[in-house]
Amino acid sequence: MNTAIAGFDWDSGNHAKCQQHGVSIPEIEGLFTRPVVLLPDGDHSATEKRFRAIGRTATGRHVFVVFTIRERTGERYIRPISARYMHRKEIASYEEENPHL
Q: Which of 36, 66, 95, 100 has the fewest CB atoms nearer than 10 Å to its CB?
């Protein structure tokens, strides 16, 4: 993704949904400051483009985040939709496919 991001778009709806699996807001935001694999997630929304970010937190935990980009006052914001820690099999697959990360 080659667009400048002004920050994150949080409200009570996505804040609660993202923390439902124990991933903290600082972990989610911090994930985007590190190398991540970005994939489209076209199967889950007909009204907006969604993406999946897969990477590691600063403490090394593997996280999976679904998000969209929202534009407001000419700036772009990451709006996390859901987040969870990855399962063992997902981690093994991720590390095999992305040895450089």
A: 100
